[in-house]
Description:
- By secondary structure, the chain is α/β, with parallel strands linked by helices.
- The protein folds into two domains: 65 residues; 160 residues, no CATH class.
- The strands form two sheets. The protein has a six-stranded mixed beta sheet with strand order 1-2-3-4-7-9, with helices on both faces.
- Helix 1 runs antiparallel to helix 2.
Amino acid sequence: xxxFGNEALYERNMRAAFIAxxxxxxxLLAAVFVLFNSPGQLLRYFAFLMGGIVLMQVGVYxxxxxxxxxxxxxxxxxxxxxxxxxxxxxxxxxxxLVGPSGVWILLPKHVQGExxxxxxxxxxxxxxxxxxSRLWRRMTQEKIGRPHFxxxxxxxxxxxxxxKHWVSDEPLHVxxxxxxxxxxxxxxxxxxxxxxxxxxxxxxxxxKGEKKGNLTAKQVQQLQQILEN
Length: 229
């Protein structure tokens, strides 16, 4: 499999996470200091407290870059042949796989717990664990969000890109998969609008994709040339 990455972007965002976490921690320590040494200065206390919380959340957001979803995808799909190519932050989608099995948008999620999907409310849920673990999870890990909306946004951006560059009369059918990277995760999302799997099962899920999404050798070559130019 051919791999195209963006190492500079990862390094920049990991540096941002480090700075946000350090400054956020210092502001929380300053809030504690003000609380015990100047109890009358509540405004300053709340300013340090809220600033610290916000910065720590910023650190959590950027900290996901340090978990290197790109490397996880590379390891999981390394046995694919060179007819396949994966693009990390090199296309309108953050992680895009192109090969005979089709065009796949891969949405990584660094969450742990039991994952389910409520089709009635179109909501993804994370559950499991005791009160302490759930509280820690809420404070420190990224939110699962709404992957189906994220996929729609990335698919829309990819579609606009292809409208400008794809010259073939045969339309491309883009597919998406939510991929959970944490070891301690159970996925039970049978009613989800598209595949949601642990990364260990990603390759098998790609092989079970919709037949209309398959690409001919010529289509694969054309699309990879567009993305690499």
